[in-house]
Design brief:
The chain has about 300 residues and is mainly beta. Helices cover about 5% and strands about 45% of the residues. The chain has a single domain, classed as Neuraminidase, CATH 2.120.10.30. The strands form 6 sheets. It has a 5-stranded antiparallel beta sheet, with no helix packed on it. A 4-stranded antiparallel beta sheet has the order 4-3-2-25, with no helix packed on it. It has a 4-stranded antiparallel beta sheet with strand order 9-10-11-12, with no helix packed on it.
Length: about 300
C-alpha cells in the first residue's frame, strides 16, 4: 500500500550540500574529514538507535552532518540500501508489526511495503545495479531463503530454495547476472553465488572452518567480494577475488569488524566495528589502510551503505 510521507530528504540534502561547501572552503572542524576541496563521492546511510528506536541516518563519507532520514517513532527502521538512481531507499521495518521490506522515496512522496503479501520475516534487501530488481532474505517455517522481486514488488520468486538451511544477505554483481549470499548448507556459514534467475548450480566461493558471512560485491569491475569472517576469533573484514578465490584480511584488529559496503568508485569500504566498546561506523581504503572512525555515539551505529 502506497502511503504519503512528509518530505524529509530535501532538508537532509540541503544540509549536506551546505557542509560540502564549508569543507570546500577549508573547514577543518572534523579531524577525520577530508582536506579542503577534497571530493566527497556519495553519502553513507546507516542504522542507529541513538534516538530510542532504530532509524536510518545519512552522513557524508567524512562522518559530518549526521541526519535522521526516517524519523519513525515506535518502530525500527534498519538495513538501508539506496537505489542506483538515488531516488529510493530500501529498508527493513517492523512498523506494521512484522519485519517487512519497505521502499521509501527520498523526496518524501511515498512509501510502500513490498513484502506484506508473502508473510514470514523479511530483511536485508539489495537493489540490482540497474534498479529493476530487488533481492532479499525471507525467513519462514524455520529456514531462510533468498528471494527476488521486481522493483515494484511484483514477480516474487524463491531464488535459493533452501532445504532446511539458511540462505541470507544477498548482494548483486555489478552486471546483474549473479547474486552472492551467505549459507550454512555446509554446516558453517560460507559465501556462495548463483545466477540471478536460479538457473545452474550455485558456486561455493569460501571454504573455511570459521563463519564467512555478509558479502558485498565490488561495484566497478565485480572482481571482488568483501565479507565478514570470524576465522581467527573476532570478526574481520576480508576480500576475495571471485575468479581466483584469492583472499585477504583487510582489518586485522583484535575486536570485531563486520557489515562491509563499497564506495561507488570501489576505492573505499565502510564497515561496522566494536573496537570502541559499541558498534560504530568506520571507513577504510579498499586495501585495508587508513581505517577511520566516522560515528561517535554511545548508541549502536552500523549497517552502513553508500549511495551510488
Amino acid at each position: 500500500m502506497l502511503r504519503p510521507r512528509r518530505s524529509l530528504y530535501p532538508g537532509v540534502l540541503l544540509a549536506l550540500l551546505t557542509a560540502a561547501a564549508f569543507v570546500g572552503c577549508g573547514g577543518d572542524d572534523d579531524p577525520a574529514g577530508p582536506g579542503p576541496g577534497q571530493p566527497l563521492d556519495g553519502t553513507i546511510f546507516f542504522e542507529t538507535d541513538r534516538d530510542g528506536d532504530y532509524d536510518i541516518y545519512v552522513m557524508f563519507p567524512d562522518g559530518s552532518v549526521q541526519t535522521n532520514v526516517t524519523n519513525a517513532p515506535n518502530s525500527d527502521e534498519r538495513q538501508p540500501d539506496v537505489s542506483p538512481d538515488g531516488e529510493k531507499l530500501l529498508l527493513t521495518s517492523d512498523r506494521d508489526g512484522n519485519n517487512d521490506i519497505w521502499a521509501l522515496t527520498l523526496d518524501g512522496s511515498g512509501e510502500v511495503n513490498l513484502t506484506d503479501d508473502v508473510g514470514g520475516n523479511n530483511f536485508t534487501a539489495a537493489w540490482s545495479s540497474d534498479g529493476t530488481k530487488i533481492a532479499w532474505t525471507r525467513r519462514a517455517s524455520g529456514q531462510s531463503d533468498v528471494w527476488v522481486m521486481n522493483a515494484d514488488g511484483s514477480g516474487k520468486f524463491n531464488l535459493t530454495e533452501s532445504n532446511g538451511w539458511d540462505d541470507e544477505q544477498p548482494t548483486w554483481s555489478p552486471d546483474g547476472a549473479k547474486v552472492a549470499f551467505q549459507t550454512d548448507r555446509d554446516g558453517n556459514m560460507e559465501i556462495y553465488m548463483i545466477n540471478w534467475d536460479g538457473t545452474g548450480t550455485p558456486d561455493r566461493l569460501t571454504d573455511n572452518p570459521g563463519h564467512d558471512f555478509a558479502p558485498s560485491w565490488s561495484p566497478v569491475d565485480g572482481s571482488r567480494l568483501a565479507f565478514s569472517a570470524d576465522r581467527s576469533g573476532p570478526g574481520e573484514i576480508w576480500v576475495i577475488n571471485v575468479t581466483t578465490l584469492t583472499e585477504a584480511n583487510l582489518t586485522n584488529h583484535p575486536d570485531s569488524d563486520f557489515e562491509s559496503d563499497w564506495s561507488p568508485d570501489g576505492t573505499r569500504i565502510a564497515f561496522t566495528s566494536l573496537r570502541d566498546g559499541d558498534a560504530e561506523v568506520y571507513v577504510m581504503n579498499a586495501n585495508g589502510s587508513s581505517q577511520t572512525r566516522l560515528t561517535f555515539n554511545v548508541a549502536e551505529d552500523g549497517q552502513a551503505g553508500w549511495s551510488r
